[in-house]
Every structure is written in C-alpha cells, then in structure tokens.
Amino acid sequence: AERSFIMIKPDGVQRNLIGKIVGRFEDRGYKIVAMKMVHATTEHLEKHYADLKGKPFFPGLIKYMASGPVCAFVIQGLDAVKTGRAMLGATNPLASAVGTIRGDYCLVTGRNICHGSDAVESAEHEIALWFPEGVIEYEDTEHAWIYEN
Ligand code: GTP
Ligand code: MG
After folding, report:
1. Quick one: which residues bind ATP (predicted)?
2. By CB distance 3.0 to 4.6 Å, which of 18, 102, 125, 144 could disulfide with 93?
C-alpha cells in the first residue's frame, strides 16, 4: 500500500491540533503506521527541505520548523500521497479550500501547520529520513470495510 509522510509543524503542535489533524487521516480511512514527536535539528530540517535551499524564505522556514517539536507520522492507504496533499490544502492557507486542514486552521504560508510529501518518491525519501527505524506493520481490522477487496 502507498505511504505518505505527514508532519504537524511546530505551530500545529503548540496550538494543540495534533489530535484533530491525525483524526482526519484516521477518519478518512488511512492507517497510521509510524508516529513520533521530534524537536528536529536545523541539519535534519535542511535535509528534509533540501529542494528549497536557495529560496528567499528558506532560512525563515528552517527557523520556524526548528522552533519547537513537530509530530511526524506516516499514513498508509490508497493514494496516500495525492489524497494526503489534497487533505492538507494549498501551500498558502488563504488559497486552501475550507474543509482542508490548512483551509480550516491557519492563515499564512509561513505558518501553515502541516507538511505532506508531494510525490511517492519524496514520501519514501522522507519516511527513511524521519523514521530510519522503519514503520510498524500490523493487521488493519477495518480493511474490508474501507476497501472493496
Ligand atoms: P510542505 O508540505 O511543508 O512541503 O509544503 P508545500 O509542499 O505545500 O510547499 P513547499 O514544499 O513549496 O514549501 C515548503 C514550506 O515552505 C511551505 O509549507 C511553507 O511553510 C514554506 N514556504 C513556501 N513558500 C513560502 C513563501 O513564499 N513564504 C514563506 N514565508 N514560506 C514559504
Ligand atoms: Mg513541499
């Protein structure tokens, strides 16, 4: 099954939105196969956002992401990457549809409370970066009620 790396950023953690955000993915039918609180180092975050190095907002982004703990987790299920991104909403919260996480809980791009992998390959890369110990495989008892087969 497809997996995506999702992260509640420091603002989402400080605003006590962990339960609500994780709950949306669980409610949709995704299985949580890894999860932890991490106060990431700037070195680690620079690896995570390596593709954005050189952007004018990069230093601010790293400072924001290192400003407190994040809640890192992995969702597993059908179309996890694309649907995970759709559930987050647009990068700019003001352009995010109401009903998406960003569209419901935040206002500005630089404090957009959550991250989601943008492609299957980046998901694999990000899962390996944040969960070098691997994810947990376990039987999903609701599987037959969420999928046709
Ligand atoms: P992530 O899920 O966090 O990767 O967001 P994204 O994929 O929607 O956007 P992108 O990867 O392009 O940018 C990563 C993060 O950098 C965004 O989520 C924002 O927090 C921040 N960011 C991107 N563009 C800007 C910008 O123009 N200004 C500021 N202040 N922050 C930005
Ligand atoms: Mg991105």
Report:
1. 9, 57, 85, 91, 102, 112
2. 102
The answer to whether residue 145 is domain-embedded is: no
Q: How far is the CA of 4 from the centre of ligand 1 (A)?
A: 17
Range of the domain at 110: 3-135
Q: Which residues lie with the beta carbon below 6 Å from any ligand 1 atom?
A: 52, 57, 60-61, 91, 109-110, 112, 115-116, 118
Place of tokens 């390996």: 128
Whether 149 maps to a domain, the answer reads: no
User: Which residue is closest in CA terms to ligand 1's atom 30?
Assistant: 110
Query: Does residue 57 carry a pLDDT above 90?
Result: yes
